[in-house]
TrEMBL record:
Record Pfam families: MMPL (PF03176)
A Gene Ontology term for the protein's cellular component: plasma membrane
Cross-referenced InterPro entries: MMPL_dom, Mycobact_MmpL, SSD
Protein name: Exporter of the RND superfamily protein-like protein
Length: 383
């Protein structure tokens, strides 16, 4: 039964390669339309099971008291060659700059409250920023030692501005907030020898999202290039890279699956590209090798493709099934991101298997019937 089905698939793919390629392209365009719907997930509470008591309490705290995510801006002294550089973070020029930044931050969407040591000094000074370091020192002596120690570090080279937010787990709001805060920092006229750096949970989440994207691009690209080199060395011809075409389309389909199923890009799923490439290339190598053997026996491209699908297809199906089953076992993991990794990797392997059996024979036939003869004619004309 299975052998007959595979034979019919092989016959259709080998005898109507252009139709097969057109079908795959149309399906890939459809899948690609869902890729922009993939959302990043960097909030730690979303990476945990949502039925945990601590996670539920966190959401309740947010609902009752506002956001729990914090933007912290470290304002510190840095080396400078300027003659009028700041040597004490309590310098009135720094205090005025901090006051200006605080006012600008309050207008940022998502920020609910902003505070800094400058607020305390302004309150002690009757509503205005102290205009000398001596005045600041005098005002600080009015505070209890416990409060005084929290305002600046021991050598008076740093202070912290704290902004509370209500962005929660919304990744888009988190990214926008991070960018807006950085813009406000750049717009602030800092005196020489002073810089401000955004940190805190919002900044870390934004940076984590950027690093996930970067990691995905780098690892997938490196894996693809390494596999392409190995394929060329194994089959000893440049055109053998056509074996990689099922992998390319399987990545597109996998991305579409993530967008359609609402599976986010997180620390685990960002590695899917290289995993699918590494696991899925086996099917292409096996198919390509069997097709090459049939061609060396004197079979024409179409017959070689049909035989390859008929007799190698069942082994590829079995291999893909066992791999997918192993990956799907991750779906019972308590961590959602591990479960998502299992779903996406299993889907990617299934797509690789389908495309290898249905699409790769068509590509191999077109390569043998049109691409290689064309290259041979070009070489003969050049030589």
């Amino acid at each position: 039964m299975l052998k007959e089905i595979l034979q019919k698939i092989g016959e259709f793919s080998a005898k109507k390669p252009l139709i097969v390629i057109l079908i795959v392209i149309i399906m890939s365009i459809f899948a690609a339309s869902f890729i922009p719907h993939i959302k990043k997930q960097t909030s730690y509470e979303k990476m945990l099971p949502q039925d945990l008591k601590a996670v539920k309490e966190l959401y309740e705290v947010r609902d009752e008291f506002g956001g729990t995510d914090v933007v912290e801006i470290a304002v510190k002294i840095v080396p400078s060659d300027c003659s009028d550089k700041v040597v004490d973070i309590r310098d009135p020029r720094v205090l005025n700059a901090v006051k200006m930044l605080e006012e600008n931050l309050r207008s940022v969407d998502g920020i609910t409250r902003v505070s800094s040591p400058v607020d305390v000094l302004i309150k002690l000074n009757g509503g205005t920023v102290p205009q000398s370091i001596d005045t600041v020192k005098k005002l600080m002596r009015e505070l209890p030692p416990s409060e005084r120690e929290k305002m600046f570090n021991k050598d008076y080279s740093m202070m912290v501005i704290t902004a509370f937010t209500d962005v929660g787990g919304d990744e888009k709001k988190c990214d926008n907030l991070y960018k807006s805060v950085n813009e406000r920092i750049k717009e602030t006229p800092w005196p020489p020898g002073v810089e401000a750096v955004q940190t805190g949970s919002i900044a870390l989440r934004a940076l984590l999202g950027d690093l996930m994207n970067e990691s995905q691009e780098i690892t997938t690209s490196v894996a693809f290039l390494a596999i392409m080199l190995i394929i060329i060395l194994h089959f000893k011809r440049i055109t053998s890279v056509v074996i990689l075409t099922p992998l390319v389309f399987s990545l597109i389909w996998t991305g579409g699956f993530m967008g359609l199923a609402g599976i986010p890009l997180d620390m685990a799923t960002s590695a899917v590209g290289s995993l699918v490439l590494g696991l899925g290339i086996d099917y292409g190598i096996y198919f390509g090798s069997r097709y090459k053997e049939e061609r060396e026996k004197g079979k024409d491209p179409e017959d070689a493709a049909i035989i390859t699908v008929t007799y190698a297809g069942s082994s590829v199906l079995a291999s893909a099934a066992t791999t997918a089953a192993g990956l799907l076992s991750l779906t019972i993991a308590p961590l959602p991101m591990m479960a998502n990794l299992g779903k996406v990797c299993a889907a990617g392997i299934i797509f690789c298997c389908m495309l290898t059996i249905f699409f790769l024979p068509a590509v191999l036939v077109l390569e043998d019937k049109y691409v290689l003869p064309l290259i041979a004619r070009i070489k003969s004309k050049l030589l």
